[in-house]
Amino acid sequence: MTVLRAHAEDEYAEELALLAKEDDRPRPPGWALSPWAVTAYVLGDGGRISPKYVGARRIVEVAVATLATDRALLLLGVPGTAKTWLSEHLAAAISGDSTLLVQGTAGTPEEAVRYGWNYARLLAEGPSREALTPSPVMRAMAEGRIARVEELTRMPSDVQDALITALSEKTLPVPELNVEVQAQRGFNLIATANDRDRGVNELSSALRRRFNTVVLPVPATAEEEMEIVTRRVAQLGCSLRLPETTTGLEEIRRVVTVFRELRDGVTEDGRTKLKSPSGTLSTAEAISVLTSGIALAAHFGDGVLRAADVAAGLVGAVVREPAADRVVWREYLETVVRERPDWHDFYRACREVS
After folding, report:
1. Interacting residues of 336 by C-beta distance below 8 A, sequence separation 6+
2. Nearest in space to 190 (alpha carbons), one of 94, 108, 285, 56
3. Within 13 A of 182's CA, how many CA atoms are on the CB side?
4. What is the model's pTM?
5. Are 113 and 162 spatial neighbours (Cβ–Cβ below 8 Å)?
6. pLDDT (tens digit, 0 to 9) for every residue of the chain, 354 residues total?
7. CB neighbours of 229 closer than 8 A, spacing ≥ 6?
8. d(CA 259, CA 290)
């Protein structure tokens, strides 16, 4: 494979095929797998199927059960809680296609949700099916697949509300052609939204009623977050073809500990209260810091991940607003990190880049 990042249905094609072969449970119309098999694909089975999401099983079961009904699914959470990751794998397992995606931004037009036109053909031939450019949502409806909308609350209100007819009536009118596209069995929609960065607009009450909301929490324990980070760092290193590196679990634990303590505003022993920086310090950012550290260790070090390799990325993740965050970081460095006997190398490395 030469692509930098394969779609979930391509990267895990063998696992999906294995589950489909052994899956003898009832499948909703249009689904490639049963709800039980979709959940097994997402959470893993401890053997042949690798876990894609580490978290409470009930959260995944509720999300899958929602998609088996006529209700759309809204994945809500702070940045870095694997909302996009989970939505991609749910779409891959249910439809075999995770690519029907609308990226929400302040400038997302209504055509991204409904349909647009090939203006060259429109001017030459007038309105016709051949001149119509379907949106990912329209394609998902016509093909009976799962559509995905990322960062729903960043889209303007009028664009958000263009989804209401599709979600409630299961149809998308095309008045220019006097026709409509009716949703085929298997169609549903997964949206994600960030509950910390509120974005441009809140959802209207009419649109919110069309969704079942599932809140994705941050990892409950340090061990759970360590497991997530360790697995994803290894996967990214393989995907990026980084030279083989001895990944020190101690450095991973330190980064995860720093992120959790600053995020929670208290040390892990509960004895010292801390100020929290302006950034989110999400699990995804911890993965990024460690992946960059592995690249440094592989290309400019001795192939062993050390404190000096993660220090620069760690400081950059914490200090987002130089004036305020630098004070928070220095206080944490001097009052917490410096006092830990086995963290002296980590303290020195962070001091050098601070």
Report:
1. 261, 267, 272, 274
2. 94
3. 3
4. 0.90
5. yes
6. 688 889 999 999 999 999 999 999 999 999 999 999 999 999 998 889 999 999 899 999 999 999 999 999 999 998 889 999 999 999 999 999 999 999 999 899 999 999 999 999 999 888 999 999 999 999 999 999 999 999 999 999 889 999 999 999 999 999 999 999 999 999 999 999 987 655 557 888 899 999 999 999 988 899 999 999 988 888 888 877 777 766 678 899 999 999 999 999 999 999 999 999 988 899 999 999 999 999 998 889 888 889 999 999 999 999 999 889 999 999 999 999 999 999 999 999 999 987
7. 252, 255, 256, 283, 286, 287, 290
8. 12
Instruction: Give the tokens for residue 182.
Output: 């009716």
The one-letter amino acid at 124: A
Of 89, 115, 108, 112, the C-alpha closest to 16 is 89
Q: What is the DSSP string of 130-163?
A: TTEEE-HHHHHHHHT-EEEEESGGGS-HHHHTTH
Under 8 Å between Cβ of 38 and 94: yes
SS3 191: strand
Nearest one of 231, 199, 211 to 79, comparing CA atoms: 199
**62-99 burial: b if 16+ Cβ within 10 Å, else e:** ebbebbbeebbbbbbbbbbbbbbbbbbbbbbbbbbbbe
Question: What single-letter amino acid sits at 68?
Answer: A
